[in-house]
Specification:
With 302 residues, this protein is an alpha/beta fold. Helix content is 39%, strand content 30%. It has 2 domains: 184 residues, Rossmann fold, CATH 3.40.50; 115 residues, 2-Layer Sandwich (Gyrase A, domain 2). A hairpin with a 2-residue loop joins strand 2 and strand 3. The longest helix is centred in the middle third of the chain and has 30 residues.
Amino acid sequence: MFSQQRGIKPKVMIVPSNAWMTQNGFVKTTEEQGAVQKEFQYAEAFDNDPTLNSVINRTGAKFAERGFNLTDMQSEIKSLNARIEKNAITGRTLNLLDELAMQVSADIVLELDFNIGNAGAGRKIVDRFSMTAKDAYSNEIIAGAGMPGAPSSSPSVELLVVERVEAFINNLEAEMKRVFQGYVENGRKARIEIIAAPDAVDFGCYDYYGTTLPDGRALFEFFEDWAYEKAYKGRGNAEPSPSGETVNIFINIPLVDENGRNVNAMKYCTQFLRDAGLRSLFVMRPEQVGLGHAILNINDCK
């Protein structure tokens, strides 16, 4: 498995930043139970802003020249409608970026932010520019670069932004590859969230400190052992809430399995369903939240 991982190149999906989407009016705001929800309209942005298309395409080409695998966000959005409609029916509430990342198995989401201002005397200026790389599994920021540019008389807005990309791509590339090399060697972060339903707790089959599995281990021992044994190179631990009804298992997972297929949190979550000890006690259901986050719902007693 380790030798398979060494040849992997990170897959990058370049997206417009939330600030750019908001500034350019590609956001829908709704209110649900007093909470304001924002839904970014990526498909509309790509369909209606030729500058965005050009800038992202040319930025992607720069990264492709450096050996990164690129995925085209615009084309992937169009093929995602069926899944989004299904989610609406089932009540699943993943945001579009998470859905896209899962669909293409992205490693890194690169947020591109820019704004073109008027510098006077017929000149333009990139007065806001940044590239922010986020881990598609943990959503943690792993690298960032960018600064405003100088006034320019260039008539091409795209060229002004691409010049900013070229000015910072070396540092960004080095940091992204350094972090990804760490994933190759030690795995990347994932989280399995175990949630016990009231029925399982009230009927007494689920007691984090009191339930004993058929092999004699207490439930908390099983989860702690599982976190260590299943995590890549033993890098895992279980962290329960005070009541134990919710347990977060933080593990490092490899980039690929023994067959060279991409690994995500859901693949690890489903391993709980195959454990005979747990199956004998609980009715369980897994749920995928993102590439690096899955939930195991313990719904009832058997």
